[in-house]
Amino acid sequence: KTVHDTQRMIDYLETRPDIDAARVYLIGASYGAVTGTVAVAREKRIRAAALVVGGGNFRLLAKAPEVRKELPQWLWPFAGPLMVFAAGVADPIHHAAQTAGTPIIMLNGSNDGVVTPESGKALFAALGEPKEIRWYPVDHPDREPNGEEVIKMLNDGLAWFLEQDAPFRPATQENMETQNLDEMELSLFPGNFSPYNRKVMP
Fold it and tell me: 102 and 74 in contact (C-beta within 8 Å)?
């Protein structure tokens, strides 16, 4: 239903004279990254997408430490098979290859206890090209005490969207928006910050 609603929303945006339908972008976080992957696979009107703390392979997701905390230990061996049985068709792994042609960036936490790095890597491997993944030293955002790193991750996603949108904007507008982004980051992160640990995978 979420994917269908996304498609209908784009239908509506195309009726708006003040909206450029060639500049529709998607961002999905956590479960939204799961459904977002499927939406990008099915909906080619999405120009680019950012998947934040997203992952695939429900068997791996079921092994996440924070997921297991919510389950009695005797249920651990059955959690993965039950997820596959109940919702396996929704696993983004099965749809990821169809995203080919739509640029995607994944922004994931190397300490994520909900969507583990293994799950994030599994989804990234299955995605079509072009794609990029960046790693940040954070847990799942709703559990991460270092809010500055989470905001940094989201700012990187915003900057990436501006890069994707650059062909549609005059150079003067692009420079102005980049400057505004820099000013926003300075206001969020006063002083000097050492580069945070991230890895860009080919």
Answer: no
Tokens coding 185: 């980051």
Cα–Cα dist 167/171, whole Å: 9
Residues 6+ apart with CB under 8 A from 71: 79
Within-domain flag for 181: no
Is 79 inside any structural domain? yes
Range of the domain at 82: 24-167
Q: What residues contact 28, with CB distance under 8 A and at least 6 apart?
A: 34, 35, 36, 37, 39, 49, 50, 51, 52, 54
pLDDT per residue as tens, the chain (202 positions): 788 999 999 999 999 999 998 999 999 999 999 999 999 999 999 999 999 999 999 999 899 898 888 888 888 888 888 887 777 788 999 999 999 999 999 999 999 999 999 999 999 999 999 999 999 999 999 888 888 899 999 999 999 999 999 998 876 655 555 555 555 444 444 333 333 333 333 3
Q: How many domains does the chain have?
A: 1
